[in-house]
């Protein structure tokens, strides 16, 4: 049962524009959310996170928004760069454990 | 950031053999490590939670006798795939927690191919 869902398997964005990656979750116990970036044949790299007590967290070009009532979060990348091309995984966890629940990932392609 | 290594990065083995994958936290001690498996075009799936000095906790549907996990020290966890079959071919990734649950660092992964 997929508790974290990324319904868009792929996204293509022009360089300089905004990339918006979406993620939905079903478990109301989740209170911490993370985004990871992954290149083929490598482990995920932590990108940005947000606690459920916040609705926005910003780090440079990356901003994560959390809408608890809708159980939805999104990652905004602006401006997008070709080097941002990778698979982005949304993950969630709860205070009762450390294990991460991952979405299926969204493959982002930033074209020049 | 903290470094987690995995060895080997790639392994090809014959069906029926056993393969051991090592996960090491290089610059910090990790009482808890996790093992994930990624199928093509699918999400990372948690296989088990590895706790130093105690038995691993396996997720539902993961055979503990097939995927042996040993967390012998605060910097090393091993995953042994016993009697490997072609369907075990996958990308296995470990992670280690440093201080709190939001500091989870991933290894580079191990590509296992069973012929």
Q: Summary?
A:
Chain A is 0% helix and 54% strand. Chain A is mainly beta.
Strand content of chain A: over 45%
| Strands of chain B, total number | 11
- Structural class by secondary-structure content of chain B: mainly beta
Radius of gyration of chain B: 13 Å
Instruction: Tell me how many strands of chain A there are.
Output: 11
Seen as an oligomer or otherwise, the chain set is heterodimer
| Structural class label of chain A | mainly beta
Uncertain residue ranges of chain B: none
Largest sheet of chain A: 6 strands, mixed
Give the CA-based shape of chain A. globular
Portion of residues within helices of chain B: under 10%
Radius of gyration of chain A: 13 Å
Helix % of chain A is under 10%
Give start-end ranges of low-pLDDT stretches of chain A: none
C-alpha termini separation of chain B: 36 Å
Mean pLDDT of chain A: 91
Instruction: Report how far apart the termini of chain A are.
Output: 38 Å
Largest sheet of chain B: 7 strands, mixed
Q: How large a portion of the residues of chain B is in β-strands, by DSSP E?
A: over 45%
Rounded mean pLDDT of chain B is 88
Give your account of this protein's structure:
The complex is a heterodimer of chains A (112) and B (115). Helices cover 0% and strands 54% of the residues of chain A. Chain A has 112 residues and is mainly beta. In chain A, strands 2, 4, 5, 9, 10 and 11 form a six-stranded mixed sheet that branches. In chain A, strands 1-3-8-7-6 form a five-stranded antiparallel sheet, with no helix packed on it. The termini of chain A are far apart. Chain B has no helices and eleven strands. Chain B has 115 residues and is mainly beta. The relative contact order of chain B is 0.33. In chain B, strands 2, 4, 5, 6, 9, 10 and 11 form a seven-stranded mixed sheet that branches. Helices cover 0% and strands 53% of the residues of chain B. The radius of gyration of chain B is 13 Å and the shape is globular. The interface between A and B is medium-sized, with 25 and 26 residues.
């Amino acid at each position: 049962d997929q508790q974290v869902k990324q319904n868009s398997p792929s996204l293509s964005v022009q360089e300089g524009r905004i990339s918006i990656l979406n993620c939905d979750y079903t478990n109301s116990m989740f209170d911490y959310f993370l985004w990871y970036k992954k290149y083929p044949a490598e482990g995920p790299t932590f990108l940005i996170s947000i606690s459920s007590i916040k609705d926005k967290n910003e780090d440079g070009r990356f901003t994560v928004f959390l809408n608890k009532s809708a159980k939805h979060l999104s990652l905004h990348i602006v401006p997008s760069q070709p080097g941002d091309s990778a698979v982005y995984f949304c993950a969630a966890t709860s205070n009762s454990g450390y294990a991460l629940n991952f979405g299926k990932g969204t493959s982002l392609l930033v074209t020049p | 950031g903290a470094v987690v290594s995995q060895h080997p990065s790639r392994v090809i083995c014959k069906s029926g053999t056993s393969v051991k994958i090592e996960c090491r936290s290089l610059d910090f001690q990790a009482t808890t490590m996790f093992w994930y498996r990624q199928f093509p075009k699918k999400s990372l799936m948690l296989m088990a939670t590895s706790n130093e000095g105690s038995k691993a906790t396996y997720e539902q549907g993961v055979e503990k006798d097939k995927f042996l996990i040993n967390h012998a020290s605060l910097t090393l966890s091993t995953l042994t795939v016993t009697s490997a079959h072609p369907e075990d071919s996958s990308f296995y990734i470990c992670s280690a927690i440093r201080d709190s649950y939001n500091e989870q660092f991933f290894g580079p992964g191990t590509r296992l191919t069973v012929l």
